[in-house]
Amino acid sequence: MIEDDTTLANNLSAVIRQGGFEVFVSNDGETGFRQAQEKRPDLILMDLVLPKKHGFKIMEDLQKSPELATIPVIVLTNLETPHDVERALSLGAKAYLVKANYSLNEILKKVKEVSDGTN
Amino acid sequence: MNTNNLSSALNVSARCRDLHVSLWQCPHFLFIVMGAVISTTILLTYVVAKFYAEPETVVSIIFVVTVFLFVVGNAVIKAFEKVAEASQLKSEFVAIISHELRNPLSSIKWQIDALMEKKEGLTSADFVPAMKIVNHSNEKMIGLINDLLDINRIEDSRFQLSPAIFSMNELTDEIVSVYEPIAGTSNLKFILLAPKSPLWVMADKIKVKSVISRFIDNAIRYSTSSGEITISLEDIGSHIKWSITDQGAGIPVKEIQNIFSKFFRASNILKYQTEGLGVGLYLSKYIIEATGGTVGFRSLEGHGSTFYFTVPKSKA
Fold first, then answer.
1. Which part of the chain is the Histidine kinase domain (chain B) (predicted)?
2. Is 0.90 surpassed by the pTM of this model?
C-alpha cells in the first residue's frame, strides 16, 4: 500500500490484514516503488498524489519492468477528473476507486476481487 | 429571447465584468467596436467616393481601416484565448478543491467506519484518537473554505480588515506554541529572536495571525527533516519586521516570479505537493499590503528561504 496519509493507511491496512492479507505500507512514492521491487507483492493499492514520486510515475516505472508490470494495481485516490481516470486505466490500473465514495470494507472487497481475478 | 435576456445580452459592460476582464480584453465589446468601425467605414467610403471621387483617397481609407480591423481582430482572438484560459484554470481549480475537500472528508468517513466496525466494547481509548482526527479534518475543511471566501471577497473588492492594537511578540509566541509539537514530529526546532518589550502594531490581528501561521506552516512543510526554523521580530522605525528562515528546500529559480500569484501551485500541486490550494502566499501578500506593509523573501534553492513581512507600528 502506498498512501501518504498515515491515519488513512493505518485504518485501511488494519482492515485488509483482517481480511487475511499481509500488508506493507509506504508513505511516499519513492519508498513505495522500492518496496514493490523488493517485495514483489501480489497487488499494489496506491494513491496518486504522493510525495517524492507521483502515482502515475510509479505506474509508468512498473510498466517498464517486465517482472513488475504484471502486478495488478488498484488506484485509491480523491482525484476524479476524467483525464486522471483515463490515464490510470491506460497505465494498466485494475480499478480506480475514489476514497470518499468507498467504505473500508468495500475497498477490502475490491482488493479480494482483484487478487482472486489474477490468481 | 425575452426582453430581460435581450437587455442583459446588450449590457456589454456587465457581461465583461462577469468574465473578469477589462473592456479592451472583452470579446463582446471588441465585436461591437469592429461592427462600429465597419459600418462607419462603409458610410464614409460611400460619402468620399460620391463627393470627392478620388480613388487614391478611397483606397487609403480602406487600407487604414483594414489595418485597424486586423489589429482589433487579433485583440478579439487574444480575448477569446484569455477567456478560454480562465475557464481552463477554473476547471483545474475545481479539481484541486474537490481533492482537498475530499481528503479530510474521507478521513472522517473512515474513522467513523473503523469505529462502527468495532461497535461493541468501544472505549474512550478508541474514541479519543478518532475524535482528534475528525476534529483536525474538520479544522482543515474550515480553513479551506475560509481561504476560498477570502479570495472571493478580494475578487469582488469586498475584503475588509478590522485593525486594532496588539503585541506582535505575544501573538507570535501564541502561534509558535501551537506549531511546536507539529514541528517536533519532524525534529524541527524553533528559535525565536525578539526583544522582551512588546512590539505594538496596528493591524487586523486575526488576519496577521493567518499570515504568520501560513509562513510557519510553509517553513515546516518545506524543511528537510531536522533542523532549525528561526523567527525574528525587529523594530525598523515606522514598521515591525517579522521574518522566518528555514533550512529547507528553497524555491526553484524559475518559480520565484510566480510565488505570490494566486493558485501558483495549481499547475504542479498534484505532482509535488500533497496538500493545500496554493493560495496562502497570495492571500498573505494581499492582507499585508492592505494593512500598509510589505512582503518579501530571499531564497537559495537547496539551502532554504527567508520570508518576511512588515506591519505598521501603532501610533499610540
1. 96-315
2. no
